[in-house]
Amino acid sequence: MSHTSAVARASSPAPPSGSHRFSSVINQIAEEMNTLDDHGTPADYIPMLADADPRRFGMAVAEPDGTVYGVGDWRQPFSTQSISKVFALALALSLDGGQLWQGVGREPSGNPFNSLVQLEYENGIPRNPFINAGALVVTDRLQVLTGDAAGQVRDLLRTESGNAAIDFVPQVAASEAAYGDRNAALAHFMASYGNITLPVPALLAAYFRQCSIEASCADLALAAGFLARGGVRADGAALLSRSQAKQVNAVMLTCGTYDAAGEFAYRVGLPGKSGVGGGIIAIVPGVCTLCVWSPGLDKRGNSVAGVSALDRFTTLTGLSVF
Ligand code: DON
Question: What is the CA angle 227-232-237, rounded to 5?
Fold first, then answer.
């Protein structure tokens, strides 16, 4: 039997377990996920992630006022991987306005997240900021703007979640670097078109560090709260304009789950972003942010139980952007 538990972000006392708006829904979902026949397979191209237990499951809900609650392994830190790309994009947009879009598009790729094929046809301009090539462009711009792209992403996660313990996992970054030939190929190829500013090794180091950040469902649901609040951070300051928050949500909806984005929109109907660590964040604008984690992936790199849980959430609550 699963039971939700809760923490309030500020110093207000935590309400009794199970008393939140979506508590019974997520308890039901956690029980359903226990009975899935196939939980998928953890990512094995990053050896540090390969040993995760695919049956683990956590889900957190963060409401716009900073209340967060969850079920299962919702406080277990996991490797954020590509979920970090959302926060890097938000930071780059907040700092350089629209300049970023000269080097990266906003169309679904229809190809795997680490694919090389479109880049040559499209002159070194990646389709969107959430495939690896596009994320490398974003990290390149953010590194030039700030001098520490990965540190900025980590600090944004810390500030928005209230968890100062969020950090990189150097062994995961090293594990990925050791098998990083594809990302190196993407970066060198774009550099040949003049679409990368940093030396490629420096860019890859920043990108792998960014991907290695560990955070829990609770942390990520809270940290993504600005996307449910029209760009407003936890402290009330604007990270993005309302229009930019809409833009990030739109790109998440159309590109956040790679070549499965159409199926994800069909099943879940929310802006979402997955990572090969098994996490997915999803936004219900104005209502809440969700984060699910289960390390077993499908063939397209998305968490099997994660997608299924979000599908059940929007089905059971009737909430979606459609
Ligand atoms: O670039 C990579 O291969 C990883 N560090 C991130 C990939 C990832 O999470 C894609 N997600 N589904």
Answer: 155
Ligand 1 pocket member 78 (CB < 6 A): no
The Cα–Cα gap between 236 and 121 comes to 43
E strand map for the chain: 5-8, 58-62, 67-72, 78-79, 214-215, 272-274, 279-284, 288-293
User: If you take atom 11 of ligand 1, which residue's CA is the nearest one?
Assistant: 275
- d(CA 44, CA 47) in angstroms, rounded, equals 6
Identity at 318, one-letter amino acid code: G
The answer to whether 305 and 255 have CB atoms below 8 angstroms apart is: no
Mind listing the domains of the chain with CATH numbers?
3-317 (3.40.710.10)
Rounded to two decimals, what is the model's pTM? Answer: 0.94
CA dist 248 and 252 (Å) reads 6
Q: Whose CA is nearest to atom 2 of ligand 1?
A: 132
How does pLDDT run across 205-223, given as a tens digit for each residue?
999 999 999 999 999 999 9
| pLDDT confidence of residue 147 | 97
Q: Is the distance from CB of 104 to CB of 125 less than 8 angstroms? A: yes
Rounded to the nearest 10°, the torsion over CA 204, 172, 254, 252 is -100
Dist. CA 303–CA 312, nearest whole Å = 14
Amino acid type, 288 = C
Is the beta carbon of 259 within 6 A of some atom in ligand 1?
Answer: no
Cα–Cα distance between 20 and 17 in angstroms, integer?
8
In angstroms, the Cα distances linking 76 to 131, 256, 280 are: 26, 23, 14
| Nearest alpha-carbon partner for 29 in 217, 160, 213, 163 | 217
